[in-house]
Amino acid sequence: MEALYNPEIWIALATLTALELVLGIDNIIFISILAGRLPEKQRNRARRFGIAAAAITRLGLLFAIVWITRLTYPVFEAFGQPFSWRDMILIGGGLFLIAKATHEIHQKIEGAGASPEAGGLKRAATSFAGVIVQIMLLDIVFSLDSIITAVGMVDERWVMVTAILVSIGFMLLFAGPIGDFVERHPTVKVLALSFLLMIGLVLIADGFGQHIPKGYIYAAMAFSVFVELINLWIRRREQRAALQRDAR
Length: 248
Hints:
Elements: H1 7-35, H2 40-69, E1 74-78, E2 81-84, H3 85-110, H4 116-124, H5 128-153, H6 157-184, H7 186-207, H8 214-247
Antiparallel strand pairs: 1-2
Helix pairs in contact: 1-2, 1-5, 1-6, 1-8, 2-5, 2-6, 3-5, 3-7, 5-7, 6-7, 7-8
């Protein structure tokens, strides 16, 4: 119960929920692509079912990874450093986050179009059941980054579960507006991906026995979000001023 009165826990919950929400945008986009192959009357049902399946998948992966990270008995030793299953999961997860974030940032900056996988998935979907199966398989891949991010950011399992459930709830209610907001402000997604890079480095350091206090991570994220909010506000004012000049 003492954890409930720790402000760092609530900051972690809010930050992780926001990250889970942004990381789920790609999931929503691909679910929409797959659902678009169905007749129009089935699309909304497929989207809702797919996002609900995403919640189940993420929770299952979360409990599996959390259980593995508690296996702290050394498995082997290299260069005088013992490594357990937990260490290997953290290092592997950190490398995965860095690779995924780097790839996504590269595509965002280079302006690459839709991936060939998306087109292949769209062509393959022929029935409601087929779409749901593909959504569930795809969600396993897309859930890895959010689950590993949760494990890297907080130690309390209830915070991870709450953040995932809240983000899934928001995705169910506001899938369209959230996707539109991120599309209108691509710097928000780039900021979230830069957070993944930082969390990936933290996981790798932790896997090598170098623990970095989470408070430093939250402070850096909060400052970055504050700067981005100022940038969005300035851009909005500039756009309004430009519209007023054009109206004259």
